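Quick note —
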Amino acid sequence: MAQAPGLQLGSARPAAPRGAAGAAGSHLREGGVRAPASAATIAPSAYDPDGRMNEVPTLTPHVLVLDDDPSVRDLVCDYLRDNELRVTAAQNGSELDAAMARETIDLIVLDLRLPGEDGLQIARRLRETSAMPILMLTGRVEEADRVMGLELGADDYLTKPFSPRELLARVRALLRRARAQATVADAIARVRAYRFGAWELNIGLRKLKAADGRAVELTNGEFSLLAALVSSPQRVLSRDQLLDLSRLHNAEVYDRSIDVQILRLRRKIEADPARPQLIKTERGAGYLFDAVVEVVR
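Predicted structure written out below.
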């Protein structure tokens, strides 16, 4: 089955048989060459003593596609497989749970409109236990639905109908960001505390203390936001960057709440919250933590 020029996933179409969907996925591959649907790729830098390349298997990222529309689900799965990703398909929350119980999933492509437990409920549930990237698919045009999905934990979204090439680009971008976050998380995991000015933020105990030993109560969101700021001092962090870093500390920080929590933090650590010297606002860019920070490992 050859794909008509300009075909977009999620547009109205009859459900295709599995074999036909595979053929369509092959045609969608750039250059018209179908890549093997394999869980391994060849490490190009591995050579034997005679200069011949050894076939060293390396696991590729594993994507779970959750959509109750079989035509969309099959085409998305085949297209991602054709571009060297491992893919598992699911049509509801129960199948998602079963797949995650037996597989290590790196990213979820999640349809917003599902029967029973919908995409918003699933996104909220996933975020309670995991920072795994979620790419939300939605046929809804209302901004409120997209905003709600992002605030409940989705990392990005696509509105149906969408280009398969754009889907792949967004999946790869989220996977790159997740790898970068994992590197940062590994570094943060070795940090015991941050000291700045007259303050010490203990990461293991999740406590903030003043120089006189006085403990300052922080909410979970405030702690995670402060930890994100002190981990990158003298650097302007956008709201998106603060959200990403906050999630490394199991925070429930949403874009709309960042400004409010920054205000609360200033009231707790600034000598004059109206003229902040530690957490400074960079207009149109984000926030900067303006202090010398000592890292205790």
